[in-house]
């Protein structure tokens, strides 16, 4: 009797994080940031996970839109599954960007991601000590 071997193919997942200092992990005393911690706990034997942390300190939603268009496509070129996590807003508030412009930028990223077969998830920046800024972020 011959032995049958079953091989399962591993999922090929590209995962890009776009955003500001919160995404890049600025100010983290351990130099890791939340993205690194999440990825460290997200490894699975059935998946080849390729992660791109594209966070930039001071990035607004306009910057993120530009970077989505220029930096994400080459990274996802050969990936079977494409995932995007976007977290932006703090610097929109800081620079006085209108809520309407922020929403339009974010909606454009999400629309373009969807039309490129990229599954996207939006993560709000955390609240800070400024109540007015928190209200705008909300």
Question: What's this model, at a glance?
Answer:
The protein is α/β, with parallel strands linked by helices and 138 residues long. It has helices spanning 21-24, 33-40, 61-76, 90-95, 99-115, 131-137; strands spanning 11-19, 47-55, 81-87, 119-122.
What does this structure look like?
The chain is α/β, with parallel strands linked by helices. Helix content is 42%, strand content 21%. It has a 4-stranded parallel β-sheet. The longest helix is centred in the C-terminal third of the chain and has 17 residues. It is globular, with a radius of gyration of 18 Å. The N terminus is likely disordered.
List the helices and strands and how they pair.
Elements: E1 11-19, H1 21-24, H2 33-40, E2 47-55, H3 61-76, E3 81-87, H4 90-95, H5 99-115, E4 119-122, H6 131-137
Parallel strand pairs: 1-2, 1-3, 3-4
Helix pairs in contact: 3-5
């Amino acid at each position: 009797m011959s032995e049958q071997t079953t091989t399962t193919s591993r999922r090929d997942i590209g995962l890009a994080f776009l955003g500001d200092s919160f995404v890049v992990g600025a100010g983290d005393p351990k130099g890791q940031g939340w993205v690194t911690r999440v990825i460290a706990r997200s490894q699975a034997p059935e998946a080849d996970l390729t992660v791109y942390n594209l966070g930039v300190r001071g990035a607004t939603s306009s910057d993120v839109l530009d970077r989505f268009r220029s930096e994400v496509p080459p990274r996802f070129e050969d990936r079977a599954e494409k995932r995007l996590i976007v977290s932006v807003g703090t610097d929109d508030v800081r620079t006085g960007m209108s809520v309407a412009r922020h929403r339009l930028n974010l909606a454009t990223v999400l629309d373009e991601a969807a039309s490129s077969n990229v599954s996207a998830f939006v993560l709000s920046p955390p609240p800070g000590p400024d109540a007015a800024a928190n209200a705008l972020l909300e």
